[in-house]
Every structure is written in structure tokens, then in C-alpha cells.
């Protein structure tokens, strides 16, 4: 490998800087395959990007793979990594074809399907809520034997889009119809939804939510950070806050790690990086909601891990996909503080008139990143629909209490004002 390794990054949205910044830190050149909805103008801007390689992965995966193989033959690159959830299966296939490090195609298929993940967890004797897949819109409600409350969701959704909690049998048909309709309405919106994947109804896991960020190299899993998302009780589930490290007793941390490591083995995830979401049922028993075989939050979960554990997770993820050993395998990193993420709630939705409080955040020394993806004029649809996250703030603090206080401060001062509706 040359002193400056080259990696193809597939579908990393260029408004999210974290993985590009990591590549720059590590001296890795990036060939960016822009996401379909990314404007080429912003796509090339990051310093680490040395080349743009547009491929129509969704529209014509065969041709995309052939074009990638052609590019490889012209001048080989050293690795390939997925920059978003939808790119995971394509990247697995390309890695295999080109002999590069990555997920197996089998594992990629499992982690792209919530139902399949559930099945594998059960087979491995790990926790999973009861669920049914509704692929036939008639003829299911009467036979439903799940314990209420339940959650209705697209089988291959994202960002809590179309996810609805239902407390009793009376509301279930309406909720399923609503989720189906939302999935239909989003088709062609370049978000990878497949209506044929169906809708899941599953038992509600009652307890706070956490997330775990992991690195996997030669089958060995390291859980780098566990973050606290808190109580999210619905009926809709927009994520607004995360704090790391989660303040949990050592025995619960150990139980979470065991569940997460077990899930990697159950799914056959042996190389790469993952974002795993879990609930702590009754506050103590970790049960997996889902796993994504990529860096979470469009990259920002790696920053949270970096601050809270000292592990430069995005750099180590890139290294793994280059076939290199992660740095944290050798050297024990030192935590730098408490990290927090805040995503401005969409609330009622509408056309954005103004986003208040941005200037104060921009100049706050506690803030590492402020990413704004929407501005005045943008149309935000309220949950359970989804249009994007308007603003993301990543900050660092001396303690978890200070991180929490800052979150409360942001909740008061940073908000979207919508135009009045007529
Ligand atoms: P997505 O792919 O849209 O993120 P998830 O399965 O992660 O789908 O669901 C989104 C959110 O909805 C979760 O983060 C969680 O807060 C809530 N949720 C989903 N399923 C359940 C469940 N079975 N019990 C409790 N909460 C759930
Ligand atoms: Ca998901
Ligand atoms: Ca999720
Ligand atoms: Ca999530
Ligand atoms: Ca699509």
C-alpha cells in the first residue's frame, strides 16, 4: 500500500463532515461516490476527497459495480466503505468482487432487514421482542397475539420514519395503514425504502434507550462507546439527544457489551464498524432494537465515541476497511470528556421561517460541531413522517450533568420557527 492509502467512500453525505475530517487526520485519500441526493458542488469540497466517482447504485447496481471494477483496474484503491445504510449491501458485494476488506454479503443482507436481525437474535438465544411481519394488508389484525403496547414500523426504514406506538387493539389497523401510506409516499425519494419489505408490528420494549458504537476486526468486536438516549415513549420517536459515556453501573455495561458482541456473532459481522440501538427493559435488561453496519448518525456517533472513550473511531473504521489493524487494538486510548449530541426537534413542522439561537451555538467553546442542513424556506414534515434533521450540535463537557444542563439550555434557546399557515 502506498504511504497515502486510497479508499472509496460510498454515499457519505458531504454536509456531514466527520468521516472526511477523519480521513484527513489519518492521511487517507477519499474517492467519493456521492449519494443520489447530494449536490456535486458540495460533494467535492472536503479536503480528503481527491476524486468524485458518480455511480447509479440504486438505479443500476450491475452497471455501478462494473464501473467501479473498471476504475479499480485503471488504478487500484485500497479499500471501500459504506457512508450510509442503503450503501451497505452494494459495498459488501463490491468488496468481495475486488478482494477488499468488508462485510460478507450474507451479513450485509441480515443487517439491512429488521426481521432477519430478530430471527438471528432468537436463534442465538439473545433477547428480541415478539413481532409479526405484515406483508398482506388484509387478514392479520384478528390473529395478532402480541402483547400491547406495540410499535408499527417499516421493515427497512430509517430515522424513526413511520414508526408509531399503539397502545391497544383499536388503534392498530389505523397505524398500519398510516405507516404503509408513508412508505408509499416516500418511494423514489432516494431513501432506499422498499414497500415489498413490509411493515413490522412488534412488542414495545419499555425502558430507556442506549446506543453502542463498535469496531470489528478479524471477528473481534470492541464496543467503543455506549451512549444514553433516555426515555423515548412515543407515540413517535424523533431522536433529539445523546450523551456519552452513558452513566450506568458496571454490571449493566457488561450486559450491554455481551448482548452487542453476541449480536455481531449472530449476524456474522466480522469486519467493519457498527451502530447498535438497544433498550434497557425495566432499566436493566439490554434488548437490541437494530444494528447498522456503518458509523451511526451520518458519522457523528464516531465523534461522540472519540471524545468519550478517546478511540478515534472514524479513523479506525477507515483503517479496518483498508485492511489495517485499528489503532485502539494496540494502544489504550484516554477519554477526553463527556460528549453530547442535540438534534433540533422538528415539532409541528411546516415551512421554516427562521432557526433561532444558531449564533450563540456557533461561538460556544463547548461546541465541536454545528451542522445545519436546512434553512429558511425548507419544508419540514412532522413525525412520523421524515424530511431530515435541520440542525445537529455536538458538544463536550466536564461531566454528564453539565452535558445534560447544556442540552436543557439548547432546548430553550435553539428552535425552529415556522411560517404561519393560511
Ligand atoms: P429506524 O430504522 O427507523 O431507526 P427503529 O427500529 O430503530 O427504526 O425504531 C426507531 C425508534 O422507535 C427506536 O429508536 C425506538 O425509540 C422506537 N422503537 C422502535 N421499536 C421499538 C420497540 N419494539 N420498543 C420500544 N421502542 C421502539
Ligand atoms: Ca435503521
Ligand atoms: Ca434506529
Ligand atoms: Ca438511530
Ligand atoms: Ca429509493
From TrEMBL:
Keywords: ATP-binding, Ligase, Nucleotide-binding
ATP-binding listed as a keyword: yes
Annotated ATP-grasp domain residues: 118-322
Coiled-coil features, chain-numbered ranges: none
Protein name as annotated: ATP-grasp domain-containing protein
Native organism: Streptomyces caniferus
